[in-house]
Amino acid sequence: MAEEFSTDGMLDMYLFENEQLLEQLQDMVLEQKDADCFDEDSINEIFRTMHTIKGSSGIMMFDNITAISHKLEDVFYYLRESHPENVPHVDLVEHVLTVEGFISNEMEKIRNGDTPDGDPAEIIADLDRFLDQIKGEGGQEGAKEPPKNVHVEPKQFYIAPVSTSASRFYKIYIHFFPETEMANVHAYKTVYALKEIAEDLLYSPEDIIADAESSDIILKEGFRILLQAQASEEEVRKIIGIGYDIEKVDVFECKAEEFLQGFDFGDEEDGMPIIDLESSVEVIEARAEQAEEGENGGQAAPPKPAKPAKPAIAPGDFVIKSREPGKQKKLAKDKPKGEKASFIGVSVSKMDQLMELIGELVISESVVLQNPDLKVPGLNLDNFNKAAAQLAKISTDLQNVIMSMRMVPLTNTFQKMNRIVFDVSRKLGKDIEFVMVGEQTEVDKNIIEHISDPLMHLVRNAVDHGIETNEERMDEGKPDKGKITLSARTEAGKVWISVEDNGKGLDREKILAKARKQGLLEEGKPDSAYTDKEVYQFITLPGFSTNEQITEYSGRGVGMDVVVQNIQAIGGTLDIESTQGLGTIMSLKIPLTLAIIDGIVMETGTSSFVMETGVIKEFVRVKEDMMIHEPNGEEYIMIRGECYPVLRLGKWYGLTEYCESVEEGVMLILEVEEKKICLLVDKLIGEQEIVVKPIPSYIKKVRGLSGCTQLGDGSIALILDAGGLVE
């Protein structure tokens, strides 16, 4: 007996495949949301997507997902078959996105181990009303009503063979890609799809669900189906189709007699010889000689009589044995096909673990290369240095490969923002165009998880605060449509993500008045002394909001402070530019990755620090007469005619035994967001690849520190956050 069937693997496959389908569905719908209607290909694609999700959900017995996907399938079945006119396109887009959102939420529950208990009754009722509406508007002048799209629960797949004059019979051979996992489940889905049109349906192997080992048989020998249906070959191929799992589909129409013979055809049929089109002439002759020897008891065959003249061949005298599907005859002149790319899904947790091991490898490499035993005078290290250089090259290449595996494009994140703009603009009654630029920019997956929420806040603020109402834009003579542009680019190891709108911009005077009311302005400092950037930074403070009315999306003074906190947590910054009446640009500057960075190791007192190489513009030696000392204790230095504020690292963190003389130390000129500062340290150690480790949670957050790392000698160094020092 087959072992008890487990659905664990099926569940993983179900979630993976349907998540891919839902992402493609959302992208397709949002791309055509501003069109007059869906094109025919999109209607067919949405219908097939819902049909697939309905089938797989029925298999997994998620009834609510099955019901809602079947109802949306009904809508697109009607659109596909009847081609009604005057379909309210925006309403249809909303219905599709509502169903997509419901299914996504239910699948998230399944992924978290919860029960998918959402009630789709209200959404299904809305879809019923919408379907009645388009039937009423599109069904005039005797439009033909398509046959009802009936859903049958997936309990039994054998359908009573009721043959009519319109029935047609097919032999179907399906071959899956060799790397396809759980081919038996994919075969089951194909059977489930075909049953919608089937009058009679048989398949081999038969126990594709009860026996998990049937997957190996299907991959090796293919999956065979006998189908009786009132459908053309083209319609059958549309239902099956070649996709990411199916490599080849052969559909042969046959007679009823051949259909009834089933899968066991034997060597002869009805006593008629079979013509073998697969084997070579030599093989066929050798086979015939062996047969003759067998008939004569192993003795040589008697001389063959002269062949009689060939009689005329009447139709039906021979049965042609078709070539076995999937085995193409290889000719000498055939060129080998290029190797097909193959993919494998890997858990993110395993990738994180692999990244941590790479980090430990980098640390171990530093320990080996900086070992004090190597500093013995007179020691010949030529061979060691050659081996060390090779090791360093391999570890660097390994890091690059692992990092490339973790890098994912921002496409999905940007599409989520597209969905937010569509939903919020509809609820607020604003006509807004959404544009994406550079969505293929790749970022570390962990970075994407950190920026999704901040980006959502910025986009919603742009829709609510930034873009005016349609009436206000009309009064101001602006284009009818508001516009929000979400763009991404990479520059010097950083990713810039900008949210730009062409709305009313930030009101400087209004922000200053609110800041004065909350006591945020310095006493005696005139408003004109504040730069625009300083004024705009007020909106990122907790509890600060210029919206006088509290809405569903804004006005409570929360959001922007959370954005800044989340961005700073990954070493990023938020830059705000605005022109009143023209629009606002919110720019996030974030690192490409959080894992391994190039850094400069330095010492102050008895402590080691690391600074990211990208923010250090210059190392300089200075003299005391270049220093400027203010009465309030602040210090500045003149370098080549430019004045820089000075920060003594030892004094900043209250260290002991640090070098107080600027002439004995080293000045580092740091630049962050066009702000410059000189950092005084005791000495430089060198450049090193740094594995970023978080500061333990039991240590209070310290300004100017972003993490820690382990050096080659085993000591701990603190990683300096240039943004925190420059503020």
Could you list some keywords that capture this structure?
six-stranded mixed β-sheet, alpha+beta
Account of the protein in words:
This protein has 727 residues and is α+β, with helices and mostly antiparallel strands. The protein is 39% helix and 21% strand. β10 (482-491) and β11 form a beta hairpin. α1 (8-31) packs across α13, α2 packs antiparallel against α3 (63-82) and α6 (183-194) crosses α7 (214-221). The model is unreliable at 1-7, 138-143, 152-160, 265-278 and 300-341 (pLDDT under 50).
Low-confidence stretches: 1-7, 138-143, 152-160, 265-278, 300-341
Tell me the helix content: 25-40%
The number of helical runs is 20
Q: Give the CA-based shape.
A: flat
Total beta strands: 24
Q: How far is the N terminus from the C terminus?
A: 72 Å
What strand order characterises the main sheet?
Answer: 16-20-21-19-18-17
The main pleated sheet reads as: 6 strands, mixed
Question: Structural class, from helix and strand content?
Answer: alpha+beta
Radius of gyration: 36 Å
Beta-strand content: 15-25%
Average pLDDT score: 77
